[in-house]
Amino acid sequence: MAAAPFLSGCDMALLDPAGPIGAEEKSIIILATCLMLIVVIPVIAMIFLFAWRYRASNKAATFKPDWDHSSKIELAVWGIPCVIIAVLAYVTWVSSHTLEPSRELVADKKAVEVEVVSMDWKWLFIYPELNIASVNELAFPAGTPVHFKLTSATVMNSFFIPRLGSQIYTMPGMETKLSLLADAAGDFDGLSANYSGGGFSDMHFVAHAMTDDAFAQWVEKARAGEGKLTMAKYRDLAKPSEKDPVSYYAEVEPTLYHDILNKCSDGSTCMDAAVSLAMAKEVAGGDLQLCNPAKPRG
């Protein structure tokens, strides 16, 4: 009760899910906590019970200096934890497959595709099917699955919308996938959950789950944004900065996400192209002359 006033401002986001993934994860948290309490509550109770029962002034307590074994106690001490671990193992196995982040959610509506890039210290959201992009603001229709493809332009980071569930890492030169869905319209806080440098603490964004009409209006708002996100503009955007305001881009360079993912946004050879050329050279027995596809010949 004394701590309640100090905790009144806490946001129990994980226990207030707004989508099916978050709801499933909430049930796992509650189940794991209840299983833990099967051991914790009796142990805490017995601490006080034993302290009182075997206090120095209690002459009625049984004194057994030669006692060293009880089969019943051994069965309880080992049996109960083994059952709890078995239940947790089963839940972990099942939920690891049903809540696999890359597993696409099934719904009546077509999913919205979003390409996410974590930067220093901001978030870039690219909508490849709509050919728009936004910085530090995410929007999608409520009741519609959102399929994310995620990478990092700098260091390893972590994408997390607590009320929707499933934190997932972003890594340079690698792609992770995530599917989320919001049951109803609302605004949900998103954040970086992995320390990434000086501006980490302000690396927040808002995820807007909207009605279909509101999302259509948001798309039009984005299309009235700062022109086309070209590779040159991206290089300026990628420079480290903190507390960047929300911004929109009416168009996006078609290969922008690919080039960020393959670490060739600076004009160097893309990783996928380099791997393909290396494989071709190996097949050709080392006689194939490699070239840089990002640079014109002659």
From TrEMBL:
KW Transferase (keyword) present: no
Coiled coil: none
Entries under SUPFAM superfamilies matching the protein: Cupredoxins (SSF49503), Cytochrome c oxidase subunit II-like, transmembrane region (SSF81464)
Name under which the protein is recorded: Ubiquinol oxidase subunit 2
Lineage, opening ranks: Bacteria, Pseudomonadati, Pseudomonadota, Alphaproteobacteria, Rhodospirillales
GO terms for MF: copper ion binding; cytochrome bo3 ubiquinol oxidase activity; cytochrome-c oxidase activity; oxidoreductase activity, acting on diphenols and related substances as donors, oxygen as acceptor
Major location (coarse): membrane
Origin superkingdom: Bacteria
Source organism: Nitrospirillum amazonense
CDD domains reported for this sequence: CuRO_UO_II
Domain Cytochrome oxidase subunit II copper A binding, chain residue ranges per copy: 109-221
Cytochrome oxidase subunit II transmembrane region profile domain mapped to chain residues: 6-103
Gene Ontology annotations of biological process type: ATP synthesis coupled electron transport
UniProt-annotated location(s): Cell membrane
Transmembrane segments: 28-52, 73-93
PROSITE patterns on file: COX2_CUA, COX2_TM
Lipid bilayer topology: Multi-pass membrane protein
Keyword terms of this UniProt record: Cell membrane, Electron transport, Lipoprotein, Membrane, Oxidoreductase, Palmitate, Respiratory chain, Signal, Transmembrane, Transmembrane helix, Transport
InterPro entries assigned to the protein according to its UniProt record, in alphabetical order: CcO_II, CcO_II-like_C, COX_ARM, Cupredoxin, CuRO_UO_II, Cyt_c_oxidase_su2_TM_dom, Cyt_c_oxidase_su2_TM_sf, Cyt_o_ubiquinol_oxidase_su2
NCBIfam families per record: CyoA (TIGR01433)
Family the UniProt entry places it in: Belongs to the cytochrome c oxidase subunit 2 family.
GO cellular component: plasma membrane
